[in-house]
Amino acid sequence: MEFVDQLKSAVDIVSVIGEYVRLRKAGPNRYSGLCPFHSEKSPSFSVHASKQFYHCFGCHASGDVLKFVMEIEGISFYEALKGLAERHGIPMPKRAQFSDEDSRRRAALFQMHELAQENFQQNLRGPAGEAARAYLERRGLRPETVDQFGLGYSDRSGRVLVRLFEQQGFAGDLVEASGLAGRRQDGSFYDRFRNRLMFPIQDEKGRIIAYGGRALASDDEPKYMNSPETPIYKKSHVLYNLHRAKDAIRKEDRSILVEGYMDAIGVTAAGFGPVIASCGTALTTPQVQALKRHSLNIVVNFDPDAPGAAAAQRSIDLLLAESMFVRIMELDGDLDPDEYCKERGPEGYAGRLKEAKSYFLWLADRARAKHDVRTPEGVVAVLQSLLEPVKRINDRLERLAVAETVAAYIGVERGVVLESFRKSVADRQEKTIERPKETVRADEKGLLCILLSETGGAPGRDPQQAQKLALLADLVNATILERLATRRIFEAIRAVDSGGMPVTFGAVNARLEEGDQSLLAEVLLAEETDENQLDLEYGRRCLESLLRSEGQLRRADLKAQIKQAERAGNVQEALRLAEELAQWERRGARA
Fold it and tell me: N or C end of the chain: smaller count of CB under 10 Å?
């Protein structure tokens, strides 16, 4: 597939992954960050710039730029290929092999949402949108904010979008699958959203994938209606405004989580960039995982009423489970975040943001309000209420520190209760990820890096490749190869060369099973050797070290076999083995 190879060679994998993961330079060709595919607090995710692949040392996720985009966005190969090509201005070939029915269906759904957006915005500006404009004016939204967030209005007639889709030739199954229309029992369609203020919901690329609609008539229920799930919208995976906020989240190294669309809009309009909200549902694990790719620090700013406090407490549990560092922002005056920004101004909101307290102190305050900590029973009740949230912290040392701090905050002296609390959180079993059992020797790692290094020339045409492969031939003929953890990788390199192909990382990696792909990635992404050392002489020294160890291992085997023969009373076999050992010893002395 020449076009796929062309695309991958033209695209910078570090730049692409950097749009989803905060990457820091960790070596001449290596970048690291928090893995987007599993929960972690210390970076184990690496990207190799020159060989254009990524690998996680924790969960062992690995692949090239196309696989990353497919996995992170949950899309097909064709969509990842097309998206990267369009983003980098590379024309796609018009061939059937680069297309599939599912991708064409998703593309049609995106197009239908674009048409809906144009219609909703026209409605808001026209005579029919007068009531919606009046509502926005009462909420203090400036015209530029309305435009920035793409707000619109859905006509009350209930057939505008359906007619528009029919005129554009969209089939009935697509109309229904879009989530923008419903189907009656008689088979006819109707617009799902009618007489509502429309909030477009976008994915991280900024593409509209769904809508939230607020009722404008007092008797319309529900007050807020969201699109149903569709092939392009999974509500549990999407955070409102993340596509706008992600750059600010990375820059400030924190996010601000609010409850609803208007809060996200109002706080953003007041000048705070890293603001996101869940899409009309309780916070979910996939949403937290999408957020933590940009920063582990989060400030939770929910409404100050009882439901808001309860939602904050539920969210804390999820955030802690995903190793987030959580602070709670409380607003006075029974004002929600949007109202607070308007009444107290950006300075007032910034002041409360600065005073946001650590989540466990907020939880302790709530517990102390319910129980009298002047009594032993009250102390025990408070500690019991805090035990479960603290146990959800993944890191053992952090759990112990938090337990100690909470105990001090509520005025508990060291004693039986505190020791019990600390023991409970300390004894939680850690979740561990199984590591490869075979270790890779330094000399085999060095030789492998030499064989896959680039020494100049046109792509895939290394001028020293023949000399490198001569080293490989010597290794392949040695019995030590069978003892190496990387033996199948060396064999794959030989197979690529035998097939007349240039020995490149991509060609070798494609021939390996998943376990060996992971091992190859770990070898190449380990603490990197100085590139100035990656020459043929260094490769020869690595090969000589491997061959010397072959003799050492053979001598150790012979000594063990001699002892076994002696114990069995087999004198002749013991003498034969002793002679062979003497020959190996003489070779070793000459080496």
Answer: C
